[in-house]
Design a protein that fits this description.
Order of helices and strands: EHHEHEHEHHHHH
Strand order of the largest sheet: 2-1-3-4
Shape: globular
Number of helices: 9
Oligomer: single chain
Helix content: 55-70%
Structural class: alpha/beta
Number of strands: 4
Strand content: 5-15%
Radius of gyration: 20 Å
């Protein structure tokens, strides 16, 4: 009996969901992945909000896949691979899943993603607390309007954005590479996993065994 799939799509805004922008590309990816429409069960589309981390359609899609004995087909994983809440739900769902843009992703891979995402949150929290404590020790009064001018807010936003661009992906890639290396993966296999997960070098290039070697030595 052929495998049946429950497609799961996601769009970032209600307007995008209504217009079909982004959704059509995901639907095309699913059709390319599963050419036989008879294998596709009714799909679920998530309209996400940047301020919320709730995904009721994901829960519904998982429930449908479990009930039908089908495989959950995620049209677009990409950045969700770094969202601990999403990948923990996926990992602990107990249903088979496959991702159109990362077909090699498996329970081990998303489990490692969850570890990395959780560790990143803890590091960010610690750095924030340490920075506030140091500022308070220098005599600054925290939480006052004087510290929240528009210029200071804009400068802080620019600094955070620059730090995220320059360091966050590299640190996450290095941690994933270290975890995979500890699992016995070769440099070539680690490079393939990093590229499949959407990571790139600081220059935007795909990882090679040599760049993975340098990453592990940092």
């Amino acid at each position: 009996m052929s495998t049946r799939y429950v497609p799961y799509y996601r769009v970032s805004t209600v307007r995008q969901g209504q217009s079909g922008l982004g959704l059509e590309a995901q639907q095309a990816a699913v059709r390319a992945f599963v050419p036989d429409p008879a294998q596709l069960l009714p799909a679920f589309t998530e309209v996400e909000s940047g301020s919320k981390n709730q995904r009721p359609q994901l829960a519904a899609a998982i429930a449908a896949a479990r009930e039908q004995g089908a495989t959950l087909l995620i049209a677009k994983l990409d950045r969700l691979s770094r969202n601990a809440g999403f990948i923990l739900t996926l990992r602990d769902s107990g249903v088979s899943f496959v991702c159109c843009d990362m077909p090699d992703a498996n329970t081990l891979t998303v489990g490692l993603f969850a570890v990395i995402a959780q560790h990143e949150r803890e590091l960010i929290s610690k750095r924030t607390k340490d920075a506030l404590a140091a500022k308070k020790a220098r005599g600054a009064v925290l939480g006052t309007p004087a510290n929240m001018t528009s210029a200071a807010t804009e400068k802080g936003l620019l600094v955070r954005q620059q730090n995220a661009r320059d360091y966050q992906p590299s640190k996450q890639a290095a941690r994933l590479a270290g975890l995979l290396h500890a699992q016995g993966y070769t440099l070539y296999q680690i490079a393939e996993e990093l590229n499949t997960a959407g990571y790139r070098t600081r220059r935007g290039q795909r990882f090679l065994p040599m760049t993975v070697h340098r990453l592990l030595k940092r």
